[in-house]
Fold this sequence. Notes:
This protein has 681 residues and is of the alpha/beta class. Helix content is 48%, strand content 9%. The protein has a 5-stranded parallel sheet with strand order 7-8-9-6-10, sandwiched between helices. Strands 1-2-3 form a 3-stranded antiparallel sheet, with no helix packed on it. A two-stranded antiparallel sheet has the order 4-5.
Amino acid sequence: MDTDDGSPLRFGLLGPVEVLRGAAPLDLGPRQRRVLLTRLLLQDGHPVSLGEICRDLWEGDQPTAAASSVRAHVSRLRSALDPGRRGRSDLLVGGRAGYALRIPREARDTAVFEESVLAARTAFRDGHLDRALQRLDRALGLWRGPALGEAADHAFALRERARLDSARQDARELRVTVLIKQADTDRAVPAATRLTTDAPLRETSWALLMRALYTAGRSVEALRQYERFRSLLARELGLDPGPGLRDLQTAVLRHDTGVLGPVRGAPGPYLLTAAPLARTNGEPPLVGRAEEIGRLDGMLRAATDGGTRWAVVSGEAGSGKTRLLDELAARADGAGLPVVRVRGGRTATGGGIGGGTGTGSGGPGAEPSGPLDQLLDALGRREPGQHGPGAPGAPGGTAAARPDPVEALVQELGRARVLVLFDDLDAAAPEDHSRLRRLAGLLRDTPAAVVCALRDLGSPQVSGLLADLARRGTTWLHLGPLAVDDVTELLVARGDDPADAEALHRRSAGNPFVLTELLALAPERRTGPGARVPAAVGTIVHDRIAGLPEGARSVLAHTAVDGGRLDLGLLAEVPGTAAGRLPALVDGAVTAGLLVWHPDRGDPLTGYYRLPELVQEVLLGTLTASGRQLLHAALAGALAGRDGTDPARLAGHIRAAGPLAPVPSTVPPGGPPRVADRDRL
């Protein structure tokens, strides 16, 4: 605002209260007058009654002449703030409601501070880090000391002082965040240290200090700071750090750059960052695998520093092993790290290095090549299908002239850093696993990262290789089902309704492949009354069911019509069922992924087996109407002979059996009905 002499007045509360006319400070008089000015400024132009001013200034110990003293202070303030006025002041006004200080909001440094921080947040959100830092430096430069100065300890000022102090800490934390994003750790680390000194119980400040130290390549110090805060919190409040800070500690331990960001000083062309990759093929984002990606990133960094690193990724069919390798390959490729990817099965793309009499690439006589042969081809040792004199598959070639593929691979991998991905290792032949064991034994100081993806860790043909890798500090990752939160994240990223997350999670059983197929359907076909089984999923389920023995298929069919929950005791009572074989039949269905264990809460050793929702729908879809009725009739007969049978469950099976329902006999007193079979059609 401008006074009569044209000079603007600016009011400062971010430190001792002050008023500037232009660049010159005004003489505000004694302490009580400055506290009065602060009280009026906090009221933001609204009047404060004389009685309230007296109570706030003297806080219950008012002198007899308190009101007269306030009027005198107001008069002196008017003279200082508006010396050229004629008549009543338009600046410090008085009336029946009390006194009010009428100034523009932008004349107060508190308003300028808040607007500058808001502009900084907007710039930060838009990715303009330099602009955000400028706005924050301007905002924080307004502070000259503790907010509200001499009035800070008065009751009327406590809430505003706490709000301003918190806003200042927020701004300082945002500034450190910007510095970390800019990798300016020389300024970020000391600034974050001051944050923890000024607010020792504020978890966000300690998190920023840990991030700044990690970004500076000082991960050990970052972990020490976590322990300092944990001890402080336990000593002062008897509490543990929150889940956010505990997750951050885990990320530091695992070098999870997906959470922590890049590390300064990491090898330049192979620096892996958490920047999202551009997706041009409509591929959905990878969800639920942040921990796995972080650990694989850490393995890649370790490999670029020298020495070979191995990782094993396992999980049931459809759990996303190939998708995880896709993501890892894209991240490595984006960081400039060469990627070579081969499959475990044998292909007929050229003569195998191990021998053979093939006549050309893919020709009628071509010998299928294993994963190591494919790897050599991809590394450029030879073009696929080309055979020089004495090469394998070439006319006149001899066994003595054939190069050893494992030794050749060791030489090739030693020439440059590379990421090697072996997908579907289950499909590799036994001799290929033997070669991989030799390769694992020979690769020691080669800067290569090797990731093997397979479904079954218990397969006898891979047990030797896995045992060897276990002795080499291998990273082990098992991909379990997605959680409901992961499904929600995916739906939000796709622009779908996240309210469907729980239903989709239940229908897919958290399997990423099944979930993807469900999302390919129209929304009304995914869940609810109009839900359908995706064609690809139905085909796979049918194939798995067909691969089971007849007894196992019967167990699954009875379970499907019984609501999907396996009742082994009831099935043992069904006529024609070999009770002694039931455990083995159930085990086969579980191995095929057609039955899933649901542990009880608090005790994972107890629970029950259940059909996944889609498996149950496929099974029911394979039954004819009479076939379903026969199954319901058999279950009704078995239930009727059990003590403690749920009458509603029995009645439901009798109704569903229709004309094939068993005929009830005399009902024993206090017991369930006994039934005899009706004549069959």
